[in-house]
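User: Good morning. I'm curious how adenosine monophosphate would be positioned relative to this chain. Could you predict the structure with it bound?
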Amino acid sequence: MEIVKTSKEIQDIVLKHKANGEQLGFVPTMGALHEGHLSLIKQSRQSCDLTFCSIFVNPTQFNDNEDFEKYPRTVEADLELLELAGCNYAFVPSVEEIYPEQKPHQLKIDHLTNVMEGKFRPGHFDGVVQVVSRLFELLPVHKAFFGQKDFQQLAIIQEMVKQLNMDIDIVSCPIVREESGLAMSSRNERLTTQERAEASIIYQTLKEIKANYKEHSVQEWQEKVRQTISQTEYCRLEYIEMVDSKSLQAISNWNDGQEIAICIAVFCGNVRLIDNIVFTLQL
Ligand code: AMP
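Assistant: Good morning! Here's the predicted structure, ligand included:
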């Protein structure tokens, strides 16, 4: 695996391979890699000739400075994992390489960004769009792989690619979970043993609603979840939203045949965790 640090170099490498007619896959990450990230690398390797992975903790998508500072940084271990996973190029740029003095793209995506994560983390998705559009300019690959774990991010990136006319196929990959059901996340490393055990309530809650949604209205479920989580020792619900999986707009009734996502954000201690489940309603 080759490690690349500059924008110019990575762009040249991508263009050279593209000219050779090779199929190129790309997995953007913020590092602190775990099985979830590696599943994206695996998926890329299955359908592409060469796989690129970036490790860049993007300052512009953190609305909370402490979260940015405490974000785990384990580059050496990450590079070893990438090598073992069969990644071909690791792009590990500095902030200056990514943002020399670029103006962010102006997109009309308010309808996707003013709900859920966007409501509670103002500016977060502007930062995500800024960094992913820049990475896509530097790595104009054929396919980019994203986890369904960040459901809203995936919808926004799909819309971004459409609005910017970028010829990149966005591939959605399933959520990889720990044995307890907790969605893998770099932030899980910051949980204490007790918090980590209690955090499994997040996925249990999502599964319970999926199995029994007809028994209560949307609002009743939201209230029930709020109450259940308020009774835990370490967890605090930030939001639970039932949304249309395409428009991300909140639903207030269960409508037969509609594909929905239930998205949840929970603080466990002072670590913020998100998760979701997607399915089609059948009444
Ligand atoms: P991050 O490093 O958190 O920015 O994540 C990089 C990519 O890995 C994003 O596309 C995430 O959605 C994806 N990802 C993170 N955690 C998981 C997981 N548990 N399962 C699948 N994909 C994940």
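The chain has a mean pLDDT of 96. The radius of gyration is 19 Å.
Let me know if you'd like a different ligand tried.
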